[in-house]
């Protein structure tokens, strides 16, 4: 019997195309989502071999329970002052996002990306890292700069691409670079920062330094080859690096299933590489802090890299150019069972008796004023498209350390063009 | 020294002088590289400065960018230029633009070494000349030596350079110059000019071409293996040609080119890479723009064909003496 004859008896093959659980207009029911109780997961020793903690990437590290109480072995037991500082930085990040979102809507810049709902991912991680550890972020970790005290006005100058923009108006808004703050220049090409972070980390190790690196990408970009190259390098050389995957459920309009999230967890990617993998409630600032702190200590003591999946939800659109109402149910955000990171930390602090609604409201007012004042300051340096930009000659600078003849010729051409046009 | 020994010596000197210089790539460590270019370096400088990598070109390039951001001077090897494409995004979108996009906050002083070019029966996966892809990218320097002396001096200069450099090594002439006659045995470098390589430190500056032969009737622009093929043809045919070895494609030594073409009035560009949108097109356009009123004939291009490199028909593909000779005769008759 030929192969062809035998195959006539088989049903035709079918292509599986993943589909998110809810589309616009659908009622939302998250009962299929397994959410382990806060405090339920063990906290392995930081030097535990990856092979001994294979259940970690399938669980969910949670510290704050439904009532905002901190519980379990991952409770970092931070001083109330530090918790208030963390709350404040998350609220400042949100206030900053709000203001810049409106600035984009007012036509002051071309583009903006909020981190609403994901503030804990960057802020709590930055609290757990040392100030001189090097961060290789993606585009939704503005909280790192906020925690490290990078001036809001500088961030805004970058967003406005104005004459005071340290990046000379060359980068899209939010693709910051701040070497002093240990914040690597952000690329628009996805996951390219992952092997770069690993390279930085292994350079640090090779030099006998004590600093470590951390990097962030979205769950969608884990499909990029760079992510897997980074994981291989990180494992092979036991690089002192923390690989953060921010699973906010949506890569523009593609849900996490298109990156493989329907079949396994993103934290479980670590297992195939022999790496430690932690899956964390990304809306629980204490859990994010604790996991980052654990991974940082592991890296700093030469026990190698950790992959942390931050399980969270992108409460807003991908960017100001995106309308999530076109592809997901409007109820998803309000029904998200892991809540809002700021509200959860606020509830926790109120429970500790060190915070109250009045103080919170007062803080929000104060932060809004702070952001407003910074925006006014930044706008004095110009907003996109009104002429207060970098001098035209800067276009040709920094392509090379020294300008070669062909760029000098092109610069002269531009000057002549502008002169003849009377500009 | 042959060219491999010269390249090895360049890395040795650079590593000795600067503890930040670090060599990485597939097989470069214990084994010393499939072409032996890194032989002995791991033994001398240790495993944290010379190390083998996983087989992932995007990883090698990306890790090198991160190492450079830390403050090292990485010298990654891509085993064959044909395999550089998975690393393209890291080189083109990251290394090349890091200085620009961060306004000088971060730089990527990496030197990517890679053997390139054909004539070794490497088929379509071990023979390509992708230099035109890199010269098209703002922010990268592209360097191609043609002698052991230059290879060492240019490589040290590239490693010391603060911009990312793509350093393509013409593997056909690793062991001796090649005049294009594939049926003749390769004559070792020791019998030729350019093989006397000082042991210690010296540099050949990037961006400066070399006039390999002075002449009055035609200017020939070439680099890498083709410099020797062109010299062989010119001598065989007794043509009074000026042969310019570009050495650095970007930044290009335009002054030397301009002066020569204005003197000779004719120009032929020779490279192994495919013709369409190749670097020869850029050279021909530049010469036409800058020297048009001095030209007595159209600028001619002699190149590989616009096909992949065919294994069994390699010598029909290769722009050898016959193709170059015909082009020269035609342009001199014009």
UniProtKB/TrEMBL annotation, chain A:
Residues 1-23 are annotated as: Disordered. It is an enzyme of class 1 (oxidoreductase). The keyword Oxidoreductase applies. Its EC number is 1.2.4.4. Residues 11-50 form the 2-oxoisovalerate dehydrogenase E1 alpha subunit N-terminal domain. One of its GO terms (biological process) is branched-chain amino acid catabolic process. Pfam families: E1_dh, OxoDH_E1alpha_N. It catalyses: N(6)-[(R)-lipoyl]-L-lysyl-[protein] + 3-methyl-2-oxobutanoate + H(+) = N(6)-[(R)-S(8)-2-methylpropanoyldihydrolipoyl]-L-lysyl-[protein] + CO2. Residues 88-383 form the Dehydrogenase E1 component domain. One of its GO terms (molecular function) is branched-chain 2-oxo acid dehydrogenase activity. Keywords: Oxidoreductase, Thiamine pyrophosphate. InterPro entries: Alpha-ketoacid_DH_E1_comp, DH_E1, Oxoisoval_DH_suAlpha_N_dom, THDP-binding. Its cofactor is thiamine diphosphate. The branched-chain alpha-keto dehydrogenase complex catalyzes the overall conversion of alpha-keto acids to acyl-CoA and CO(2). It contains multiple copies of three enzymatic components: branched-chain alpha-keto acid decarboxylase (E1), lipoamide acyltransferase (E2) and lipoamide dehydrogenase (E3). Belongs to the BCKDHA family. This is 2-oxoisovalerate dehydrogenase subunit alpha.
Automatic annotation (TrEMBL), chain B:
It comes from the Bacteria. Its cofactor is thiamine diphosphate. GO terms for molecular function: oxidoreductase activity. Keywords: Oxidoreductase, Thiamine pyrophosphate. InterPro entries: THDP-binding, Transketo_C/PFOR_II, Transketolase-like_Pyr-bd, Transketolase_C. Residues 1-176 form the Transketolase-like pyrimidine-binding domain. Pfam families: Transket_pyr, Transketolase_C. This is Alpha-ketoacid dehydrogenase subunit beta.
């Amino acid at each position: 019997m030929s192969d062809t004859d035998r195959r006539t008896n088989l049903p035709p093959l079918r292509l599986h195309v993943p589909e998110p659980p809810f589309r616009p207009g659908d009622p939302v029911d998250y009962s299929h989502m397994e959410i382990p109780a806060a405090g339920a997961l063990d906290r392995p020793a930081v030097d535990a071999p990856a092979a001994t903690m294979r259940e970690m990437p399938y669980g969910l590290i949670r510290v704050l329970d439904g009532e905002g109480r901190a519980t379990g072995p991952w409770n970092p037991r931070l001083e109330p002052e530090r918790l208030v500082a963390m709350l404040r930085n998350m609220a400042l990040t949100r206030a900053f996002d709000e203001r810049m979102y409106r600035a984009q809507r007012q036509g002051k810049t071309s583009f903006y990306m909020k981190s609403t709902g994901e503030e804990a991912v960057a802020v709590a991680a930055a609290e757990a890292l040392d100030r001189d550890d090097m961060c290789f972020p993606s585009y939704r970790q503005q909280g790192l700069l906020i925690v490290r005290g990078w001036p809001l006005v500088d961030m805004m100058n970058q967003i406005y691409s104005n004459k005071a923009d340290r990046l000379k108006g060359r980068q899209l808004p939010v693709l910051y670079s701040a070497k002093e703050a240990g914040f690597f220049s952000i690329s628009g090409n996805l996951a390219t920062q992952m092997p770069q972070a690993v390279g930085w980390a292994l350079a640090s190790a090779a030099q006998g330094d004590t600093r470590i690196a951390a990097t962030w990408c979205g769950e969608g970009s884990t499909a990029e080859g760079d992510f897997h190259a980074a994981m291989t390098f990180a494992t092979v050389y036991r690089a002192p690096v923390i690989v953060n995957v921010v699973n906010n459920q949506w890569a523009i309009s593609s849900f996490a299933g298109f990156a493989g999230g329907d079949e396994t967890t993103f934290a479980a990617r670590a297992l195939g590489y022999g790496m430690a993998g932690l899956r964390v409630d990304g809306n629980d600032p204490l859990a994010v802090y604790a996991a980052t702190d654990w991974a940082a200590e592991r890296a700093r003591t030469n026990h190698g890299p950790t992959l942390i999946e931050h399980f969270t939800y992108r409460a807003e659109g991908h960017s100001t150019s995106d309308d999530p109402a076109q592809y997901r149910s409007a109820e998803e955000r309000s029904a998200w069972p892991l809540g809002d990171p700021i509200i959860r930390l606020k509830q926790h602090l109120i429970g500790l008796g060190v915070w109250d609604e009045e103080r919170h409201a007062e803080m929000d007012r104060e932060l809004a004023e702070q952001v407003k004042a910074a925006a006014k300051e930044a706008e004095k340096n110009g907003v996109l498209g009104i002429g207060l930009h970098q001098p035209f000659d800067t276009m040709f600078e920094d392509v090379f350390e020294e300008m070669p003849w062909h760029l000098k010729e092109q610069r002269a051409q531009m000057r002549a063009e502008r002169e003849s046009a009377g500009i | 020294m042959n060219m491999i020994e010269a390249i090895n010596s360049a890395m040795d000197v650079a590593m000795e002088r600067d503890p930040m210089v670090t060599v990485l790539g597939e097989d470069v460590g214990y084994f010393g590289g499939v072409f032996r270019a890194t032989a002995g370096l791991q033994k001398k400088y240790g495993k944290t400065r010379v190390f083998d990598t996983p087989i992932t070109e995007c990883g090698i390039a990306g890790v090198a960018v991160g190492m450079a951001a830390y403050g090292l001077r990485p010298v990654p090897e891509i085993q064959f230029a044909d395999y550089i494409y998975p690393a393209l995004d890291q080189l083109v979108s990251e290394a090349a633009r890091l200085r620009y996009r961060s306004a000088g906050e971060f730089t990527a002083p990496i030197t990517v070494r890679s053997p390139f070019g054909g004539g070794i029966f490497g088929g379509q996966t071990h023979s390509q000349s992708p230099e035109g892809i890199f010269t098209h990218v703002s922010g990268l320097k592209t360097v191609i030596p043609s002698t052991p002396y230059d290879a060492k001096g240019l490589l040290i200069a590239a490693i010391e350079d603060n911009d990312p450099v793509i350093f393509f090594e013409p593997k056909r002439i690793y062991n001796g110059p090649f005049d294009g006659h594939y049926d003749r045995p390769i004559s070792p470098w020791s019998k030729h000019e350019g093989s006397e390589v000082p042991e210690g430190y010296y540099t050949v500056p990037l961006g400066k071409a070399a006039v390999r032969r002075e002449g009055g009737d035609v200017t020939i622009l070439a680099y890498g293996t083709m410099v020797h093929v062109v010299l062989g043809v010119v001598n065989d045919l007794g043509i009074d040609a000026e042969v310019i070895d570009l050495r650095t494609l970007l930044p290009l030594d335009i002054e030397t080119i301009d002066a020569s073409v204005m003197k000779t009035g004719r120009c032929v560009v020779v490279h192994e890479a495919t013709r369409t949108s190749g670097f020869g097109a850029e050279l021909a356009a530049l010469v036409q723009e800058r020297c048009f009123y001095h030209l007595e004939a159209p600028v001619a291009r002699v190149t590989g064909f616009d096909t992949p490199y065919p294994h069994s028909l390699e010598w029909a593909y290769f722009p050898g003496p016959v193709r170059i000779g015909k082009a020269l005769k035609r342009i001199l008759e014009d």
